[in-house]
């Protein structure tokens, strides 16, 4: 634990690491225990204006034992890999619990401010993931090369869109997408399958994707930001393989249990990008959904993580308008590629007032301010979980008719264990906006590699192999959806309902690269 | 494998299934099993055959212990598997109950095809009658997980778990799909594990 504590102290006393380098450097603590004290028992130095920093809650992932629990900790430490309670090998629920704890620790770390503070601005704060480059910062017009992102430097951002006459202030979001997939953005006036998400006040939800430094530099180094680069990469025999999070065995606490879902192979250490003494963090991508906050209509910004954003809307004539608006976070995917989960680990969170669960009792609340995307008692609303009728024209909002809004219910209830975990973690988040967010679930591969025992190495990003007979790795849970990001494809119908891994297994590069597999990300399709 | 004192009906079902399908028990019942197809098939077979299903499990256990001293198929010799398989499937000319044997064959088909082929007329406790020869797809997951696709070293139609463009490459080995070594020799009436399934499958 000494090394862990020293790393913590070093990080916290060294704010000069830079607003993005700090969390990346601090991931190395991920496998350590209670962070409330250093090895000598002395309290850790408090972060400036932090709220709940260092608080933790013990989660009993092994119900048959009162030892070996896992901790969810309020700290700016991005975990590189999940850890698991001892003696839980072969137990699906216990493994799920370990992944869910990983999800919460990831969410809390990424929800810290780049300077390491948490909830310092009236319970809210800008976040680490918002400081990462957005897809539009990477896949530039004409396939232009984005800038490098130095190890301890500031992440590159593209110039503000021409439509935005308002100066882009630092960290101000630029939100373009009105659906998760980019074709929706670019063909907003054309028919498409999924459909927009329109809140109870008639405003279109907005979406964005950001990537961490490991993923960004892999894209840049291999020139995958352009079609020409992808073609050259493929012609040279390249197979997209983003780096995996991993740790060296001696740093894993609790120690690896051969019976648990936890592989510990070789893992690089050092001072290069994303690495430290205990391993590397690996590629992470974050997808966020935002709701326009209409305070006049009754939205309460105090219950959301909020940002001032430049919201771009395509007009019927093809031009764009850009409006500065207050937006609230309503959904968040965190996808993290790790050594034992080369299919990535997919964590998804939501604002807890998004929508009711199908079948649960609706309380007495009526009207547009009970949920973000559901109007209880509405008689003329659209059918539940069916896209609003066309035409979809984000230039004409707010949508006034209830029938033109999304009427959303959660199709798959949260697991009871997840509800208990959420309640436990929310219990240490009081006084911050983050108490209003909940984990929906975590999807992970139960058999990542099958019979392929290829050892992780530098050549494959320090990742285990994909099972050659089932590259999805038999994910658990089988289906998973966020009501704001997979609104209209919730359910349990194979090939029709949302499942992160099985869907992203179909992701490819552009036709220029003969549509080769793109390692579970659709981002590469955006290259020009 | 549990010891004899703690063997459950599901243990017997998995080992019986491994025997008749030629797939390893770990492929049929992974340690971490989010789909839990084994339970779906177990429950379905039991609901459509009642006491005969229970008798099948007992018949398998007795045959396995008499022939090999264990129900663990992975520790049996090829000859032992063949003999036990022939017994439970009613292919050895012995006095195996015809309904039990037919149920064993339906279990084999259920694993391979994801469909239930009713082995004999049966009326359940609710008074519903299932006629011999009737057929029903057990579930979408049973269809997707059908072993026929794996034996083809392929995937269910409309549900690929390979990456785009996989068709341009050699498929993984049959061994990778079955979890068992591929046959090293095949002679009529005596085979190593793997081809046992094919012989039995064609017989059923």
Structural class of the secondary elements of chain B? Answer: mainly alpha
Order of helices and strands of chain A: HHEEHHEHEHHEEEEEEEHEEH
Shape of chain A: globular
Radius of gyration of chain B: 17 Å
How many strands in all of chain B? 6
Low-confidence stretches of chain B: 186-204
Largest sheet of chain B: 2 strands, antiparallel
> Taking strands numbered 1, 2, ... along the chain, how are they ordered across the largest sheet of chain B?
1-4
Indicate the percent of residues in helices of chain B.
40-55%
Helix content of chain A: 10-25%
Can you give the mean pLDDT of chain A?
A: 83
What is the residue-mean pLDDT of chain B, rounded to a whole number?
A: 89
Largest interface: A-B, 31 and 22 residues
Structural class given helices, strands, pairing of chain A?
Answer: alpha+beta
List its salient traits.
heterodimer, A: 528 residues, 8-stranded mixed beta sheet, 3-stranded antiparallel beta sheet, 13 strands, 15% helix, 16% strand, disordered N terminus, B: 204 residues, two-stranded antiparallel sheet, 10 helices, 49% helix, 7% strand, globular, disordered C terminus
Describe this structure as you would to a colleague:
The complex is a heterodimer of chains A (528) and B (204). Chain A has 528 residues and is of the alpha+beta class. Chain A has one domain. Chain A is 15% helix and 16% strand. In chain A, strands 3, 4, 8, 9, 10, 11, 12 and 13 form an eight-stranded mixed beta sheet that branches. A three-stranded antiparallel beta sheet of chain A has the order 5-7-6, with no helix packed on it. In chain A, strand 6 and strand 7 form a beta hairpin. The termini of chain A are far apart. The N terminus of chain A is likely disordered. Chain B has 204 residues and is mainly α. Chain B has one domain. In chain B, helix 4 runs antiparallel to helix 5. Chain B is globular, with a radius of gyration of 17 Å.
């Amino acid at each position: 634990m000494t090394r862990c504590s020293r790393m913590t102290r070093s990080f916290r006393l060294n704010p000069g690491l830079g607003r993005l380098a700090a969390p990346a450097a601090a991931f190395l603590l991920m496998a350590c225990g209670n962070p409330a004290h250093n090895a000598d028992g002395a309290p850790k130095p408090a972060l400036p204006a932090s709220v709940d920093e260092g608080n933790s809650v013990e989660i009993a992932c092994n119900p048959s034992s009162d030892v070996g629990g896992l901790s969810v900790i309020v700290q700016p430490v991005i975990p590189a890999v999940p850890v698991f309670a001892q003696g839980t090998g072969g137990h699906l629920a216990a493994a799920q619990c370990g992944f869910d704890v990983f999800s919460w620790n990831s969410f809390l770390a990424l929800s810290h401010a780049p300077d390491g503070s948490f909830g310092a601005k009236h319970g809210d704060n800008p976040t680490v993931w918002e400081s990462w480059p957005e897809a539009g910062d990477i896949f530039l017009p004409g396939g232009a090369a984005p800038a490098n992102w130095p190890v301890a430097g500031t992440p590159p951002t593209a110039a503000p869109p021409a439509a935005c006459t308002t100066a882009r202030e630092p960290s101000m979001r630029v939100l373009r997408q009105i659906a998760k997939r980019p074709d929706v953005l670019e063909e907003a006036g054309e028919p498409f399958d999924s459909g927009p998400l329109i809140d109870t006040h008639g405003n279109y939800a907005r979406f964005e994707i950001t990537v961490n430094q490991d993923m960004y530099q892999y894209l840049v180094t291999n020139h995958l930001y352009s079609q020409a680069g992808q073609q050259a990469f493929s012609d040279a025999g390249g197979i997209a393989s983003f780096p995996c999070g991993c740790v060296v065995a001696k740093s894993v606490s609790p120690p690896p249990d051969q019976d648990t879902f936890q592989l510990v192979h070789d893992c690089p250490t050092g001072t290069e990008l994303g690495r430290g003494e205990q391993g590397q963090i690996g590629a992470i991508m974050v997808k966020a959904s935002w709701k326009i906050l209409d305070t006049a209509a009754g939205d309460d910004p105090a219950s959301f993580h909020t940002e001032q954003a430049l919201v771009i809307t395509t007009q019927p004539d093809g031009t764009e308008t850009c409006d500065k608006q207050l937006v609230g976070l309503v959904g968040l995917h965190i996808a993290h590629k790790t050594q034992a989960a080369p299919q990535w680990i997919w964590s998804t969170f939501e604002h807890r007032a998004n929508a009711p669960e199908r079948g649960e009792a609706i309380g007495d609340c009526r009207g547009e301010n009970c949920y973000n995307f559901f109007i209880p008692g509405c008689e003329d609303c659209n059918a539940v979980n069916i896209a609003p009728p066309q035409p979809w024209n984000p230039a004409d909002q707010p949508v006034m008719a209830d029938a033109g809004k999304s009427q959303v219910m959660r199709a798959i209830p949260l697991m009871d264990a997840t509800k208990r975990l959420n309640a436990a973690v929310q219990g240490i988040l009081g006084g911050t906006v983050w108490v209003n967010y909940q984990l929906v679930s975590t999807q992970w591969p139960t058999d990542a590699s099958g019979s392929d025992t290829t050892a992780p190495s530098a050549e494959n990003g320090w990742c285990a192999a994909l099972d050659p007979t089932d590259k999805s790795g038999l994910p658990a849970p089988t289906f998973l959806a966020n009501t704001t990001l997979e609104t209209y494809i919730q359910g349990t119908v194979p090939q029709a309902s949302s499942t992160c891994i099985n869907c992203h297994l179909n992701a490819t590069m552009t036709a220029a690269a003969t549509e080769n597999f793109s390692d579970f990300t659709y981002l590469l399709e955006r290259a020009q | 494998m549990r010891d004899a004192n703690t063997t459950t009906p599901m243990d017997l079902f998995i080992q019986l299934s491994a025997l008749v399908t030629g797939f390893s028990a770990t492929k049929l019942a992974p340690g971490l099993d989010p789909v839990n197809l084994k339970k779906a098939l177990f429950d379905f077979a039991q609901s459509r055959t009642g006491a005969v299903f229970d008798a099948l499990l007992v018949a398998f256990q007795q045959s396995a212990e008499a022939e090999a001293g264990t129900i663990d198929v992975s520790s049996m010799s090829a000859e032992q598997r063949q003999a036990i398989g022939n017994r439970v499937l009613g292919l050895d000319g012995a006095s195996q109950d015809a309904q039990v044997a037919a149920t064993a064959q339906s279990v084999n088909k259920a694993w391979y095809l994801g469909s239930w082929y009713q082995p004999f007329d049966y009326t359940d406790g609710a008074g519903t009658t299932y006629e011999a020869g009737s057929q029903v797809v057990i579930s979408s997951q049973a269809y997707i997980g059908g072993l026929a696709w794996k034996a083809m070293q392929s995937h269910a139609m409309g549900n690929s778990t390979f990456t785009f463009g996989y068709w341009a490459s050699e498929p993984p080995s049959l061994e990778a799909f079955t979890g068992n070594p591929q046959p090293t020799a095949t002679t009529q009436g005596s085979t190593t594990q793997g081809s046992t399934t094919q012989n039995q499958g064609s017989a059923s």
